Amino acid sequence: MPDKKPISSVNDFVVRFANVNGSGSASANEMFARAILRHGVPVSPRNIFPSNIQGLPTWYEVRVTEAGHLGARGGVDMMVAMNPQTWDKDVAGIEPGGYLFYDSTKPMPSTKFRDDITVIGVPLTAITNSTYTDPRQRQLFKNIIYLGSLSALLDMDPKLIEQLIGEQYKGKEKLLSSNVHALHLGRDWALQNLKCPIGLRVKKSDKVGDRIFIEGNSAAALGAVYGGATVCAWYPITPSSSVAEAFTAHCKKYRHDPETGKAKYAIVQGEDELASIGIVIGASWNGARAFTATSGPGISLMTEFIGLSYFAEIPAVIMNIQRAGPSTGMPTRTQQCDIIACAYASHGDTKHVLLFPEDPAEAFEFAAAAFDLAERLQTTIFLMLDLDIGMNHRLSRPLKWDDAKQYDRGKIMTAEMLEEGRDFGRYLDVDGDGIPYRTYPGTHPTKGSYFTRGTSRDRYARYSEEGTVYADNMQRLVRKFETAQDLVPRPLQANAERPTKYGVIYFGSTSPAMDEAIGLLEARGHQLDRLRIRAFPFHSSVASFLAEHDFVYVVEQNRDSQLRQLIVNENGIDPVRLVPIVHYDGTPITARFIAKAIGDHQDHLKVTPLRKAVS
Amino acid sequence: MTYIAKPKFHHPGLKKNELGYTHRDYEGKISTLCAGCGHDSITASIIEACYELSIEPHRVAKISGIGCSSKTPDYFLGNSHGFNSVHGRMPSVLTGANLANRDLIYLGVSGDGDSASIGFGQFAHSIRRGVNMTYIVENNGVYGLTKGQFSATADRGSKSKKGVTNTDNPIDLVAIALQLGATFVARSFSGDKSQLVPLIAAAIGHKGASFIDVISPCIAFNNHAGSTKSFDYVREHNDAVNRLDVLVGRDPIAVDYAPGTVQVVEQHDGSRIALRKIDADYDPHDRLGAMTFLQKHAAKGQIVTGLLYVDPDAEDMHEHLNTVEAPLNSLEADSLCPGSAVLDKFNASLR
User: ipTM for the complex?
Assistant: First the structure.
């Protein structure tokens, strides 16, 4: 018996699987997460994987959370330790009173365990080897066998797992029955030899509702389909490749002409990121909706073209699935570290629109909206995702689309308008919003053509190096950026129950952890108003929020507090009033981290003055 | 010069083409290049070819990179949209433009710095993909706009104006284009309009990646003794394999050719190229033969010009991608957006 009371918890615990990359564990682990969802209990799974295809350690963490906290929690209640390489670290990471599940085929010395945890051994290799002879089968079914054992230990309904297996292997009867068989091998062994269930239990509930289980990258790619993207050019880079791959899969399903079978899209895998953005710029210049998906190093390579898009005013959509930088950094770890790099990408004076979705549902909506914004504003729009949203399955509200919606193609001067004698100046601000009209190539035999260039030119697109002409154009671009403020998604504010002088600003994948942290902070007596920023340029409500609070915490996942820098820079406010709360070790930020960092700062602020204490 | 508007009036008796356009309708702004620049002769040949083909000027998209050559699209087809993009990146911008609207004619204009150095990768990959375009390199072996540095096509041993000898090996873009699978490959000389005009016309008619390397002496920095891209040197070492006429159902373009055997090549767009061969053994359908021929003559210090290779049955990128016939930029929400009913099903599949 452990010398610490075993953790007892229903529908609120963390299970972590430690596996070897390439061992086929991913699909069994994902099935575990899905099976819990089928019990009506929300889960939040995360893949923690190396930049490697086979052999290195990989982890899959499932947070079971009836309360619906979808951020990472931190800590592990049950470790499924399937990787000898990481055994010591994995065992050390278990919470006191937690559980260790391992393959007991080979006896382990007692020094390899801990006294304050419950150790559960199942002879997985022995069971597998006595049932299967083929080495590949042995490896794959071992994963399903431990899934079966866990179902008994955690009191899960095996029928729900069988149902999932049935859906996965629909039409492949042999695979279906052999998987179900393996599941029961593990389950029956546990029921016969172990005390089931343990303190951690899954109990049927109804907290999942109509939510869907989807990766942010897939949702963003579908947003591009719904948003009318016809050209996608990309270069493989983790963690963004699955955007282009999902776009390809979605297009195959939804974008072929039913009669001719022909494709209403074109996808090109470029030779590099320069070509990818070049193709996007060329296609957008010619009137198609085009995008690329990339990550930090790709953004660095694309910056010259991004400057061209800004200055020559050509729409482009770039989905940046952020990972830890700089340089190659940690390619498979998450961060929000390209805020400054994207906001001011390129040499010269530039500013770009950034969108910050918090989850797959917003990734879908903002991706579709990005194409309207790009064509309306005739410039680059960044969709700023990160690995945490992009590459993990997340429980998300269902995706929604309004069939009455038409695409906003922006200010296009047509052949008819030119024929009517409308004055066409490619860089002429006719409406006072900084946005000029453009023509598509090939519009009219004698009117509306112009020469697009990255060099300075006048309002009629004629080359000019006159200082006043150059400055006039640069000022118009500032006006256009001001127009963007009211077109992009607005910040969302949520106030504390009682009026407070303190606020917190956050964005993107920090959302679920922040929402949970608010509850933890309230329990400690700290009241905070919240503002979730959803886009740059900042709406005027950001300045109001800053004015209404003495101190505002800015919570983000990078070292240099980049959003805070951007807010200080763009709003010209005293930086002392913006307190950075940063988390940048490559793991997703947790509620525990945020609550501690803000709570400690609050305690410090509220420290009773010495004189008052002694009087 | 940029500030001087080109007068629009012209002689009332100026000849018109099939569509009723005069030569002037294919011109652009006044060139700002040096007087006598080879590039201006290429500009004149492009104008001539487009006039002869009776192309609607606004249905051409002219795309270039950065450099002297890349400025020239401003000097022809003034009623066409042009895009002077980023140094070395014309091929990707053109590829994207072509994906968006397969119905326009794409003219890519580049230089030897733009295509053989900074943009060597993009040059290669646009050819590999079979983008339907006419890719013209105005090749002078020198960086003109930055005043005379060697480019990657400068021959080893050639001397710069300042007297420096080039010690690096040259890149022969024609040889590379053949190796990469370009389906129309030619070389010409800016001073040889009678050869160049029909080559450009034939390249425009070709469906697939057409590449023309045009030796174009830089009179400011690469037209001295010791240069292998000077007018004198190229005239002395030019070895034309063939001369051609382009027949578009009317009078063939008048060319000044040496007589020889004639071979007619029919192109996808219905136009025919009549090849007047000088070298009776030369077969323009033999890619491997062309590569060998090129190397043998290069070893002898000869610059082979003419139509070196053509595949009249070439496929282009849109065929590889199986895209719809309608230009992608013409499709609207009704055709592109799957709608809410499909989305509901999608949601249901993720529960």
Answer: 0.95
